[in-house]
Amino acid sequence: MLTKNIEEALNGQLSRELYSAYLYLSMSAHSTNIGLKGFANWFMVQYHEEMFHAMKFYEYINLQGGKVALTALAQPPAEFESPLEMFTKTLEHERFITKSINGLMELAIAEKDHATQIFLQWYVTEQVEEESNDNEIIARLRIAGSDPQALMMLDRELAARMTTIPTEFSKGVQAAAAKGPAA
Ligand code: FEO
């Protein structure tokens, strides 16, 4: 069972996760457009991860007898000056999401909603990983500076990113399916 406050807050976070997916899809499209296929892959994987984050909220609200309420999503930015700007904006957005998850957790504690606290713990851990990934890539981009070779090397590395989420739209699952059944 969810209180009205918690239900509204969970729906708010569901929208923010969907917007996160939308933002990274836009970054993936921009990366493709400027010829950085590895960056495009990284952001496409991130898009799928965010859809997974959103769907976990969707399922939890339903499971607890609440009502999912979808809202309009803001238009994401479509142009970025550089890969560094994309990742700086990504980190900024993830810090906002971290604050938002922390706010939800504080509300769940205040309302003595233990089930929601346990549900949110997964996101608390996930946000640490997300910010860490972004910080690492930002550091690499700063080292690369304006050296095109270093940028292309990083692009090749980011091309290898595969999602680990258990959904049919995950690249990992597609790649596994392409290989055929496991022996
Ligand atoms: Fe769903 Fe990137 O946090």
Gyration radius, in Å = 18 Å
Low-confidence stretches: none
Percentage beta strand: under 5%
Which percent range fits the helix content? over 70%
Got a strand count?
Answer: 0
Q: Which CATH class? A: Mainly Alpha
- CATH topology (level 3) name: Ferritin
- Ligand catalogue: MU-OXO-diiron
Give the count of structural domains.
Answer: 1
What structural category arises from helix and sheet content?
Answer: mainly alpha
Mean pLDDT: 92
Describe the protein's architecture and organization:
Helix content is 74%, strand content 0%. With 183 residues, the protein is mostly helical. It has helices at residues 4-33, 37-63, 83-110, 114-144, 148-158, 171-179. It is elongated and about 55 Å long. The protein has one domain (4-179): Ferritin (Up-down Bundle), CATH 1.20.1260. 29% of the residues are buried. The protein has 6 helices and no strands. MU-OXO-diiron (FEO) binds at residues 17, 20, 50, 53, 94, 97, 130. Residues 17, 20, 50, 53, 94, 97, 130 line the site of MU-OXO-diiron.
